[in-house]
Amino acid sequence: MGPVAPAPAGELDHDRASTGCGTADTDSDGDGTANCNDGCPNDPLKIAPGTCGCGVSDVDSDADGIADGIADCIDNCDTAANPTQADVDGDGVGNAGDNCLLIPNPGQGDCDTDTIGDACEIASGSADCNLNGIPDTCDLTAATSFDLNSNAIPDECEQLGGTPFCFGETGCPCGNNSAPGANQGCRNSTGFGAELVGSGLTDVSSDGLLLTVTHLPTNGFAVFIQGTAVSGAPFSDGKRCAAGTVIRLGLETVSGGTTAYPQFGDPTVSVRGLVPPTGGVRYYQAWYRNPTGPCQTGSNLTNGVSVVWQP
């Protein structure tokens, strides 16, 4: 019998015998197992897919696999042992590792890292005025929202009528505080505080702001004013809310305990208030006559309304 021809490059007889492949003994991942016998030829840590597949470790970080073999890749809470895989809110995150147990929150958002999920923070009363699922405090801290008037409310949430502030619940001149939570000015002769609210779009380019006052004494008038700063100091029977550079917007007659600015024929608030086209922060209030008021100064003021004007 003549001599045997040498094997082609990459094929050695003894390798064929040892692997049983009958093909080249290439080992792409260098794990010592030829590709033909390697169930994960490109994963040096595995020769079989196992539970998680090639390229993913079958590690069980929380050690609950001692009882049930739950690898991290299929464990709904791989940071804490949870062999039953209970998930009461059905969000794919197991009870043992869910930072908001009864409200679905698969992303497990926790913007302030206090271990209480954002979904639970909001459900418990944390403001989320822009409805993005993140508490407003975190939006402001991260500067994804802005707060030009420093009232802890994202500016984008104040584009419809502004935000009331400077209430007469405390600090009124003669103890004439209004009811807690009423959002009114200091109490007048009606037994209530006059309440100022805003409505309408607060864009300078399409100004629809309407300032309305209720709970006024039946007769008389009210003067609407705009300021560039806030005060809160006692003034007449009330508290001065709008300060700084003050512009008198207009005087309106009170009818049935209410009045508003602007009325027919009046300039818009931004025009009369000389708000620049680029926008800015302004504060509004109304002053009114009240000869029989509790402090006997003859006049009083509403609460204030803060407006962040957009271009």
What would you note in describing this structure?
The structure is a single chain. This protein is mainly beta. It folds into 3 domains: 13-45, no CATH class; 89-145, no CATH class; 157-309, no CATH class. The protein is 9% helix and 21% strand. The protein contains 5 helices and 11 strands, in the order H-H-H-H-E-E-E-E-E-E-E-E-H-E-E-E. It has helices at residues 13-19, 65-68, 118-123, 136-141, 269-272, and strands spanning 163-165, 195-199, 210-214, 221-227, 229-235, 238-243, 247-253, 259-261, 280-290, 298-301, 304-309. Strands 1, 4, 7, 9, 10 and 11 form a 6-stranded antiparallel beta sheet that branches. It has a 3-stranded antiparallel beta sheet with strand order 2-3-8, with no helix packed on it. Strands 5-6 form a two-stranded antiparallel sheet. A hairpin with a 7-residue loop joins strand 9 (280-290) and strand 10. The model is unreliable at 4-17 (pLDDT under 50).
A few lines on this structure:
The radius of gyration is 35 Å and the shape is elongated. Strands 1, 4, 7, 9, 10 and 11 form a six-stranded antiparallel beta sheet that branches. It has a three-stranded antiparallel beta sheet with strand order 2-3-8, with no helix packed on it. Helix content is 9%, strand content 21%.
Keywords:
311 residues, mainly beta, six-stranded antiparallel sheet, three-stranded antiparallel sheet, 9% helix, elongated
